[in-house]
Protein: Flagellar hook-associated protein 3 FlgL
Organism: Marinobacter oulmenensis
Amino acid sequence: MIRISSQQIFSGGINRLQGINTELLETQQQISTGKKVNKPSDDPVAAARILKLDQELRRVETYERNANLADNRLKQEESALASSVDIIQRVRELAVQAGSGTLSPNDRESIAAELEERLGQLANIVNTRDASGEYIFSGFQGQTPAFARDGAGDWKYQGDEGQRVLEIDDGVTVPISDHGKGIFVNIPKAISVKDTDDGTGSGTPAQGYISGLELVAPKDLTDAFSGATPAVPDDITISVVNDTGELSITGPGGTPDLTPTPPPTVGEEFQVAGIKMTVNDGAFDTVSGTGDSFTLGISDRQSVFGTIENLIDGLQGIAKGTPKGDAEYDALIAESLINLDNAQESLTLKQTELGGRLNAVESTTAFLEDSGLYTQEIRSQLQDVDYAEAISNLSFQSFVLQAAQQSFAQVSRLSLFDRL
């Protein structure tokens, strides 16, 4: 015979009511929060998976912000380069116009004035800042303008050669900046006469000059110095070696000897190592036994600013009307056109590179978006409440609670004294 006290009846009833009420409150919380797992004890396995999925979503969101930043920076740089190309193209048109033989000194001065304006515009573009106020072409020196005028009034690069990179996915990085030195400064320069010597050792310019300077066979230049150090020289020296005007051509340090057979002479067009030219009026001093010497810059590099500044100086400073003056002016225009073409090529190559980076950022962004949507879908399946089911459960639990309360009220009034 099992004895059941009134205390047991009351305790059992209260426990049952509390259990039903707890279930009801949990269902209400699920409906109010929209989540069926509000604490780990609701479903430990699902809670652990949801935690990992939340971490994955935060990772994706971080990389999406990085990808968006990279996209904005690269598009800003792309826009700056496109504007620079437009300016250089206009400068090239002005250089072609300046090459006309019908221009007066006033016409050349007008062209030089517009070139000054274009130079200022180019400087403003290369000193573009990003949204945080940093100069995009200064490398790691973001607080320093990329280009500024030095004491002589020439535009010089002030940044460093750093390149910033940003991680846009696990193990995936993309450069988001390019230093101005690599784009606007280290540009191959047309072959030109670097300096001349009159054979007296005084360092004053020679009276002779070179005309018709043209690189007609670049491969020949490379082949001429095959195995030499450096493989492509910094300069080639042309010297008048006797009073008949015979010329000697040598590489850096006097080697290798590039003089053709038979040796060319002053006033004669010749070609050496793929370079065509004519030495005019080169002189030889029979007393000192030395002659005029010309140095050709082969592997020189020049900034686009230097190219435009030299063109402006030549338009304003070269006096035409003499054979030497005319040849110097013609050489200036020819060299400027080549240097401007090289500058455009440098910018175009960088634009192509930027296009590849933007494609990489775009594809990575699309992958991150897909990954984020897939992760959200899985988390939703584990965490989001089914409102129809939850409301149905709530109604049933409310009914059960009400019935239990009524039943407990009836049972709680029972007593043994009722049977006496």
